[in-house]
Amino acid sequence: MGKIQTDNRPRFGEGTNAFVFRQLRADVVRIVEELEPQRQWEIRIKALLLPLIYLSVWLSALVWGKQYPAVYFVAYLSMGLLIVIIFLNVVHDAVHGTIFRSRRLNEIFVHLFDLVGANSFIWKMRHIRFHHNYPNVNGWDTDVDQSTILRIFPSATYHRFHKYQHIYLPFIYPLFLFNWLIIRDFRDFFSAKKTVRKLIRIPFEEYVKLFLFKGFFFFYTILLPKILLHISWGQAIGGFVIMVFAASLFSLVVLLPAHANTESAFPLPDEENTLPESWFMHMLITTNDVQETNWFVRTVLGNFNYHVAHHLFPNVSNVYYPEITSQLQRYAEEYNLPYRRLPLGVALKKHFELIRDNSLQDFDIWEESM
After folding, report:
1. In Å, what is the CA distance from 53 to each residue of 47, 98, 323, 356?
2. Are 87 and 304 within 8 A, CB to CB?
3. What 8-state DSSP symbol labels residue 100?
4. Does 1 map to a domain?
5. DSSP track, 104-130
6. Separation CA 354–CA 166 (nearest Å)
């Protein structure tokens, strides 16, 4: 495990709602105790079943792919969707230690992320150490800070090409996971400018695992089908592109609404490196839920739309989030807390509005220009 090398992290401000969070936390403990006998099996069954489904779909591509190219492409499309579903239901919960009581078992299941092309070590650092501690804080939320191509933070450095980011947005979002798998992981490992590299010491064995797992992923998704089926490079690479393209679009529809929209705050620390709100209030003003709730959301998307509950209680399994959110809504009404729940379409629209607003450079109207 990497260790933080410096301690220049922002501090949270003082708040007056600490007692509200204590009461809510007590309610969460009660909810988990009451529901655990009924639901503890749910996440574990998915943790075992979903990887087997992914493996079965990949094997079907190998069995039928040469005779029926359409089956090959549909299988790879399905694998792309399953990558996201496995991330939401298994990898994400495992990294928070909420699937099994055994820490070792959770760590084993986190490595499913390596098997589907992403690097689990660097993502865990980005997600746990930075995103969960400092959501929407420029320079610290390394999950939201994806690339300089898009200016998501209003306070981020402005480049001339950002003027057109709302126009080229639809063309680069399908490349989201291509960038993650092929560029971003390597950049976080090797670029000294990245926040993760500045604050995390990466063990040597993680560099070895980076190349081994990446190589294995490209081997079983592209090279092995090419060798075994004697298919064309066009079919082999085409299936891979379809898989990653599908995973990119599906993941963005799920991930974007929670933080990156015009309803969310993007707080900055003051000159004393203190954020304007307490930890509790910071999570509420930077995060929102997506209001859709049905079997698909609960079972397939792993209750990911109940995102405020996840940020307040990241070490609690997602199977309890609907009941936790009901309690949170009650407290929000009683104590006038800034809890937000947006329809999916509205949240995505407000994300586009954020990108469009940030395509304009802020300037000082009193600054003299000659």
Report:
1. 11, 22, 29, 39
2. no
3. -
4. no
5. HHHHHHHTHHHHTTS-HHHHHIIIIII
6. 9
Tell me whether residue 85 is in a domain: yes
Q: Which long-range contacts (CB under 8 A, 24 or more apart) does 346-352 make?
A: 347/256, 347/257, 347/261, 347/263, 347/288, 347/290, 348/253, 348/256, 348/257, 350/261, 350/262, 350/263, 351/256, 351/257, 351/260, 351/261, 352/166, 352/169
Does any domain span residue 204? yes
Segment 87-143, tens digit of pLDDT? 999 999 999 999 998 999 999 999 999 999 999 999 999 999 899 999 999 989 888
Query: Which residue range is the domain that position 36 belongs to?
Result: 18-357
Q: Are 205 and 191 in contact (CB under 8 A)?
A: no
72 C-beta neighbours (distance < 10 Å), count: 25
Handedness of CA 139, 145, 148, 153 (dihedral sign): negative
Query: What DSSP assignment string belongs to 62-85?
Result: HHHTTT-HHHHHHHHHHHHHHHHH
Statement: the pTM of the whole predicted model exceeds 0.70: yes
What stretch of H or E contains 341? strand 341-342
The answer to whether position 238 is within a domain reads: yes
Report yes or no: 261 and 188 within 8 Å, Cβ to Cβ: no
Distances (CA, A) of 267 to 13, 84, 135, 356: 11, 29, 9, 19
Q: How many other C-beta atoms lie within 10 A of the C-beta of residue 346?
A: 14
pLDDT value at position 288? 94
Q: What is the reported pLDDT for 135? A: 95
Compute the distance between CA of residue 135 and CA of residue 142 in angstroms, rounded to an integer: 9
Q: How is residue 166 written in tokens?
A: 């709302």
Cα-to-chain-centroid distance, residue 221: 23
204's tokens: 């040597």
Provide the number of structural domains found in the chain: 1
